[in-house]
Amino acid sequence: MANSYQVIDEKNWERAMHCMVFRNSVEPAFCVTFEVDITNFLSKIREQQFSFTIAMVYAVCKCANEIEAFRYRFLDGKVILFDKIDTAFTYLNQDTELFKVVNVPIQESIGEYIELATKIAKEQKEYFTGPLGNDVFQCSPMPWITYTHISHTNSGKKDNATPLFDWGKYYEKNGRVVIPLSVQAHHSFVDGIHIGKFADELQKYLDKY
Fold first, then answer.
1. Class of the domain covering 5-208
2. How far apart are the C-alpha atoms of 118 and 43, rounded to whole Å?
3. Do 201 and 67 form a contact (C-beta atoms < 8 A)?
4. Domain residue extents for the chain
5. Cβ-contact 150, 172 below 8 angstroms
6. Which residues, other chains included, contact 176 with Cβ-Cβ below 8 Å and sequence gap of 6+?
7. Are the beta carbons of 99 and 50 closer than 8 angstroms?
């Protein structure tokens, strides 16, 4: 069941012109990679024996939900704003080295989310359970390398405004543990300032967790 949303009155929407300009672009999405300090978060997650990957999915998606720009989508040609966005992430089958895409509703607490996500991920047999809904954030961890840039496949669907979040292998830098994190978003809804707000929100969450 999809999350609730409101249809935006584009005639009275202050972002209407920006939305239209970028919507007609050949490549309407843009991607930004930056470093995040996970020193405190990693320590606490290890203490609680939580999966770091699933904990990061929750942290990223919780903070992205706080930024309104990340909750806009196109639906049947109209602009809509979801009340909340759920999660979808890749989960590796160690035996086959193939990943499955797991869908998990966002939860109130990280503990609840990790418990539910772990159960769903382990029990899901199929690699793909069907097309992803419009109301998810897609997360694709890549813990094998520390990267400085990442790109994504392009479906050719210009109205696909689902943000993509990726992160690489964490490493020590100046006595801190940092991780490269990437955000790909549709420029019709998201500008650099919104990526900046998300980065600030996420860093605050990781520091205070």
1. alpha beta
2. 20
3. yes
4. 5-208
5. no
6. 37, 39
7. no
One-letter amino acid for residue 116 of the chain: L
CB 78 within 8 Å of CB 9: no
Q: Kindly list the averaged pLDDT for each block of 10 residues, start to end, along the chain of length 209.
A: 93 97 93 98 97 98 98 97 98 94 98 98 94 95 96 89 98 98 98 98 97
Give the DSSP H/E element, type plus range, for residue 80: strand 78-82
What stretch of H or E contains 38?
Answer: none
> What burial class does residue 7 get, using C-beta atoms within 10 Å of its C-beta: 0-12 exposed, 13-18 middle, 19+ buried?
exposed
Find out whether 141 and 1 touch, Cβ atoms under 8 Å: no
Count other Cβ atoms within 10 Å, centred on residue 179. Answer: 23
The confidence score (pLDDT) of residue 83 equals 98
Q: Give how far Cα 39 sits from Cα of 9, 23, 199, Å.
A: 43, 38, 16
What span, in angstroms and rounded, lies between the C-alpha atoms of 10 and 17? 9
Its pTM stands at 0.96
